[in-house]
Write a structure and sequence with these properties.
Blueprint lengths: L2 H14 L15 E9 L7 H10 L10 E10 L5 H7 L3 E9 L4 E8 L4 E7 L8 E9 L2 E9 L6 H22 L5 E6 L9 H9 L18 E6 L4 E7 L11 E7 L2
Parallel strand pairs: 1-2, 7-8
Antiparallel strand pairs: 1-11, 2-4, 3-4, 5-6, 6-7, 8-9, 10-11
């Protein structure tokens, strides 16, 4: 098969199966403007302190990081794992929203930031099996205002709805989140609980809204599932990379690190 025929066959396959040709990957080289981590803490078990130490010292990047944002799921309120107390101890701005309460603990989503969190709020999502919500805020970095959000989508439905409707449930939640966030540059960190990968409605919805998202990273859960993601819509001249960290820091999910650089 000659080159033209091979190209035509490949393009036809991608069109029919809803895929897109990957964009060329050119590593950004400008100074680090902001680092972000999205991470499911496994009901507070993740060692946030050690991760922050590694991030700030530059052990996770090629240079120390002065400004960073943590987009956390399954953070804990109260007790020795209280996320708000940790933030105060590190002089970080923080906003937490409880999602699930039990006699043992209260867990939810949180944003921790070296930059002030403006207009921090809770975004309620359509309920499927359990209550779900996002926490969102605005930060200003290098004169640019960015929306940031942390969310944990539905992971499963009742057994009789699972096969047909789980992916659509997450799609509805993703659409509701996007509708509630302001237009313009922003970043969303989330545990998407997607089994269908890039064919999942939530995944497609977010990629359409956040067009500066790099190629998807590797598995973040049990060495095979890509559940955790960072999505980017960036100002002109800003570019992002994202990497799955090898260290779980005592959680059952690997953190996903995003690094934003200004090219001009």
């Amino acid at each position: 098969m000659n080159v033209q025929l091979r190209f035509a066959a490949t393009a036809t396959f991608l069109f029919l199966f809803g895929c897109a040709l990957p964009r060329p990957v050119v590593p950004p080289t400008g100074p680090i403007a902001l680092a972000l981590v999205t991470w499911n803490l496994n009901a507070g078990r993740g060692d946030v302190g050690r991760l922050v130490d590694d991030l700030a010292a530059g052990r996770l990047t090629d240079a120390p990081v002065s400004d960073y944002v943590l987009l956390l799921q399954e953070a804990v309120e109260g007790g020795d794992r209280d996320i708000a107390a940790f933030a105060r101890g590190r002089s970080l701005d923080a906003h937490f929203t409880p999602i699930r309460r039990s006699p043992a603990r209260t867990t939810g989503n949180a944003i921790l930031s070296t930059r002030p969190l403006e207009h921090a709020r809770v975004v309620a999502l359509p309920r499927e099996r359990q209550p779900r919500a996002a926490v969102a805020a605005i930060i200003t970095v290098a004169g640019q205002r960015l929306s940031v959000a942390s969310v944990h989508l539905e992971n499963r439905l009742t057994w009789w709805r699972l096969a047909l409707f789980a992916d659509n449930a997450r799609g509805r939640q993703a659409a509701a989140l996007i509708a509630a966030l302001p237009p313009g540059p922003g970043i969303v960190g989330r545990d998407m609980n997607t089994i269908l990968g890039p064919h999942d409605p939530a995944w497609r919805t977010l990629l359409a809204r956040y067009p500066d998202t790099p190629a998807r990273p590797g598995p973040t859960f049990r060495e095979r599932l890509v559940l955790d993601h960072l999505f980017f819509d960036l100002p002109d001249g800003w570019r992002a990379t994202r990497t799955v960290l090898t260290d779980r820091y005592w959680s059952d999910h690997r953190p996903v690190l995003g690094v934003i650089r200004r090219e001009r």
